[in-house]
Amino acid sequence: MKNRKNYIQKALGFSLFVMLILSQSCKKSFLDVPPQATPPAVTFWKTASDADKAVNAAYADLHEWTNVAFAPIALESVGSDDAEKGSSPDDASYMNDFDTFTASSTEGQIADFWGGKYKAINLCNQVLDNVPGISMDANLKSRYLAEVKFMRAYAYFRLVRAFGDVPLRLHLPKNATEYNIPRSPKAQVWAAIEADLTDAAAVLPQTYDATNLGRITKGAALALHAKVAMYQKKWNDVLNLTNQVMGLGYSLFPNFEKQFRTENENNSESVFEIQCAYVDGNSAASNSQYSQVQGVRGVTGGGWGFNVPTPSLVAEFEPGDPRKNGTIIFRGVSTVEGDAIPADGDNPMYNYKSYVPFSQFHPGYNEGCQQNIRVIRFAEVLLMNAEAANELANPTLALASLEKVRARARSGNAAILPQVTTTDQAALRAAIWHERRVELAMEFDRYFDVIRQGRGKEVFGPKGWKENKNEVWPIPQNEIDLSAGTLTQNPGY
Question: Contact 296/332 with Cβ under 8 angstroms?
Answer without folding.
Answer: no
